Amino acid sequence: MNNLLTSHHKSDSALVLFSGGQDSTTCLAWALARYARVETIGFDYGQRHAIELTVRPQLLSRIRDIQPEWRERLGEDHMIDLALISQLSHTAMTENIAIEMQENGLPNTFVPGRNLMFMMVAATLAYRRGLNVLVGGMCETDFSGYPDCRDDTMKALQVALNLGMASRLKLETPLMWINKAETWSLAAQLGGQPLVDLIRQDTHTCYLGERGALHDWGYGCGTCPACELRARGYQQYRAALSDSL
Q: 16, 81, 139, 179: which sits with the fewest CB atoms below 10 Å from its CB?
């Protein structure tokens, strides 16, 4: 295990945007491996399938058991009501409509302003809690083209937040330049097979909220964009693992 994964900065404390999905759980493990104090924040924004919110408490409880020091480092969880987002949006993530591409080239699963608002609210909470690092699962490599997941957006947001609050917050996006197979691999490096199994069995990423059959890659419908990405990444991760043996 390399120093990047195991080192942590005693002067830094992190607030992780934690949805209950694969990416945010991997980011939480990444933060727990690096920082002496970690808290989590989740958002109820009127999402169409709130299954992620229901799996969060169990995930937070079980991730504490993976590494002894993680139990000590993981602090409070904060759940924020952002129903305002669903009132402003007309998307497949907040309403019971079919997933499709829009005229602007973005899928209608894109919720305009969501990640911008998430980060702004998280920064406000971090300011009050004395936390100086925000950690999010945004990714430019395997994503649906969401503009609020891009590295340029996060860098600009970090500048704006620090200017607006006279602060020195850092926005960390550990998944920004890796694909889903590499995200599975990162989880294995951080927490071994127990973390991979936790992500498979206890996280939720499916856009349709399906939690019937447990596939080798986890629960989900298997056909929505989130499931296809997760399943393909897991298959590539397992193939790479086999090749290395």
A: 81
